[in-house]
Amino acid sequence: MTSQASVTAPDRTCLIGRALSPVRYTIREDDIHDYLPVAGEEQAAFLSDEEAQAAGYARRVIPPSFAPFVAVQALLQAFDWERDFLFNYRTGTAMFGEQELEYLRPLYVGETLTVRSEVANVYEKKGKSTFDVIQVHFTATDDSEAVAFQGEQSYILFK
User: Fold this and answer.
1) How would you classify the pairing of strands 130-141 and 147-158?
2) SS3 75
3) In this structure, what is the dihedral angle of CA atoms 33, 38, 44, 45, given to the nearest 10 degrees?
4) 20 contacts 78 by C-beta, under 8 angstroms
5) pTM above 0.85?
6) CATH class of 11-28+63-158
7) What is the pLDDT of residue 3?
């Protein structure tokens, strides 16, 4: 019988360039309603269409601080741990790593975005134990295919 410690992790570098499933994400009124009090966001453009239009927006916008939440939620729907990362989430340990986000335009309540992503890099690191870092690049586009935001997220997979 083989112990868990002697099992070697797969070489995940073969994942570089792998496209993950595109995800459609709608910025729902309920999510923003719950988010605003927690985040302490009080700008009028976040509260109503009328106030947003008075501030020069087409309609009600969301706080830029909500965009990372959209990215995380969409990416967690974009991949399957075993198929896309060669990782058994039920028996292994995974952590969320860094996130970098470039916010290119305001996001609107009720807007639906398509988040496309791919594995940009995979590398091994050593600390107390050895682990793999999987970097995923993503873009979020609106229905006209204009990029609303883009960035990268990292996932840490312990061997």
Assistant:
1) antiparallel
2) helix
3) -60
4) yes
5) yes
6) alpha beta
7) 44
Instruction: Please report, for the chain, the start and end positions of each structural domain, with discontinuous segments joined by +.
Output: 11-28+63-158
Rounded CA separation 4/8 (Å): 9
Beta-strand pair 23-26/112-126: antiparallel
pLDDT value of residue 7:
57
Could you identify the residue written with the tokens 């947003």? 52
Q: What is the pLDDT of residues 65-88, one digit of tens each?
A: 999 999 999 999 999 999 999 999
Structure tokens at 135: 């970097």
Token digits of residue 149:
């935001």
In whole angstroms, give the CA distance from residue 143 to residue 156.
32
Q: What is the mean pLDDT of each run of 10 residues along the chain (159 residues)?
A: 56 95 96 90 91 95 93 95 92 93 96 98 92 97 97 93
Tell how many helices (H) and how many strands (E) occur in the chain.
Answer: 4, 5
- Strand, helix or coil at 95? strand
Please answer whether residues 16 and 122 qualify as being in contact, where contact means their C-beta atoms are separated by less than 8 angstroms.
Answer: yes
